[in-house]
Amino acid sequence: MGDLVWILSSYFVIWWLVLFTILPLGVRNHTEAGTAPMEGHDPGAPVNPNLKRKAITTSWVAAIVTAVIWTAFKTHLVHLEP
C-alpha cells in the first residue's frame, strides 16, 4: 500500500511539473502565425494550443519519469536515509 501511495503522489507532482514544461512547446500566437485575432481576443493568445495532445504527452512522459525514479529508489541507487 505504501508503494502505491508513493507512486501515485509522485506521479501527480511530476505530471504537473511536466505539463508546465510542455505547455509552451510549439505554441504560435497570431502575430507569429500571420493571422488577425478575432475582435476582443488577445493577439498573444495561442492560435492552436493543442491541449489534448499535450495532456497525452505529459501523461506518458510523467509515467516514464516516475518509473525511473521509483526504480532508482527500489534498487538503492539513491539513498534517503541519513
Write up what this structure looks like.
The mean pLDDT is 89. The relative contact order is 0.16. This protein is rod-shaped. 60% of the residues lie in helices and 0% in strands. The protein has one domain. The protein is built from 3 helices and no strands. By secondary structure, the chain is mostly helical.
Task: Describe the protein's topology.
Elements: H1 2-22, H2 30-33, H3 51-74
Observed structural traits:
mainly alpha; 0% strand; rod-shaped; 60% helix; 82 residues; single chain
Structural class: mainly alpha
Q: How can the largest sheet be summarized?
A: none
First and last CA, distance: 24 Å
Q: Helix count?
A: 3
Alpha carbon gyration radius? 19 Å
Strand content: under 5%
Give the number of domains. Answer: 1
Q: Any low-confidence stretches, pLDDT <50, length ≥5?
A: none
Mean pLDDT: 89
Helix share bin: 55-70%
Order of helices and strands: HHH
Number of E strands: 0
**Principal-axes shape call:** rod-shaped
